[in-house]
């Protein structure tokens, strides 16, 4: 290519890099704002996004998750956008490094999720089940989140109804939560056993498997964007000295 063509190609890629990362920056700011809103006024947030958010609230606090993702996107967007605008090799390399770390973490998480599903279930059981036994029926917010989750996902506890055996709730009311017996009252051990309502962990896994094509497509799309972003940032980094 002639020097003019190379310069035009460099300028085009630089502009695309700026616009792409500006979109990431604005998206990060939006997520950060929603996360802060969810933290400050969680009741209104759950009223609007209840079905979506409550299904994972027992594993991850949605508001803090949104704040974390928003902050990461803000950093990535700033580094990419400002680095390309100022043609800073330092910022472009930082952008490349951050995206590479996130990409490696995502690949590692995917491998762990595929290979060590049983380990993930064991860890969640050891963390969440004691919390259910102690706090369900005592902590109003936790109880509300779990009730919405169990009704929307049609599940009972993390593993099954036995998560509530000898719990604070069971000792107080001598029954299991209604979703454990398909909303039939009173929900005793015999009825819960006959109802065979699956645990929420199994249900969520089943939903992921059912929508595996969509989940895989989204994951592949994100990975492709990250690889493209790293390639473009490295292109700009390597060609700055040749301008």
Automatic annotation (TrEMBL):
It is found in: Lysosome membrane; Membrane. It is a multi-pass membrane protein. Its main location: membrane. InterPro entries: Tetraspanin/Peripherin, Tetraspanin_animals, Tetraspanin_CS, Tetraspanin_EC2_sf. GO terms for cellular component: lysosomal membrane; plasma membrane. The chain crosses the membrane at residues 12-36, 56-79, 91-116, 213-237. It comes from the Eukaryota. Keywords: Glycoprotein, Lysosome, Membrane, Transmembrane, Transmembrane helix. Pfam families: Tetraspanin (PF00335). Structural component of specialized membrane microdomains known as tetraspanin-enriched microdomains (TERMs), which act as platforms for receptor clustering and signaling. Participates thereby in diverse biological functions such as cell signal transduction, adhesion, migration and protein trafficking. Regulates neuronal differentiation in response to NGF by facilitating NGF-mediated activation of NTRK1/TRKA receptor tyrosine kinase and subsequent downstream signaling pathways. Plays a role in the inhibition of TNFalpha-induced apoptosis. Interacts with SLC19A2. Interacts with NTRK1/TRKA. PANTHER family: TETRASPANIN, TETRASPANIN-1. Belongs to the tetraspanin (TM4SF) family. This is Tetraspanin. It comes from Atlantisia rogersi.
């Amino acid at each position: 290519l002639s020097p003019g063509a190379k310069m035009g190609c460099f300028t085009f890629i630089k502009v695309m890099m700026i616009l792409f990362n500006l979109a990431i920056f604005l998206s990060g700011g939006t997520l950060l704002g929603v996360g802060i809103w969810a933290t400050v006024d969680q009741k209104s947030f759950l009223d609007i996004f209840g079905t979506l958010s409550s299904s994972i609230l027992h594993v991850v606090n949605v508001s803090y998750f949104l704040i974390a993702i928003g902050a990461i996107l803000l950093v990535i967007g700033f580094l990419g956008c400002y680095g390309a605008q100022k043609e800073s090799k330092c910022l472009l390399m930082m952008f490349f490094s951050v995206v590479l770390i996130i990409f490696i973490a995502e690949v590692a998480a995917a491998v762990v999720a595929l290979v060590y599903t049983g380990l993930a279930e064991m860890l969640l059981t050891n963390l969440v089940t004691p919390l259910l036994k102690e706090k369900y029926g005592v902590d109003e917010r936790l109880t509300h989140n779990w009730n919405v989750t169990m009704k929307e996902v049609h599940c009972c506890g993390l593993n099954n109804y036995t998560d509530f055996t000898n719990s604070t709730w069971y000792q107080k009311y001598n029954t299991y939560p209604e979703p454990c017996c398909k909303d039939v009252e009173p929900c005793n051990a015999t009825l819960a056993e006959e109802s065979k309502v699956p645990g929420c962990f199994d249900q969520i896994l089943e939903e992921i498997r059912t929508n595996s094509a969509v989940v895989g497509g989204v994951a592949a799309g994100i990975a492709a964007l990250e690889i493209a972003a790293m390639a473009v940032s490295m292109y700009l980094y390597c060609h700055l000295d040749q301008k």
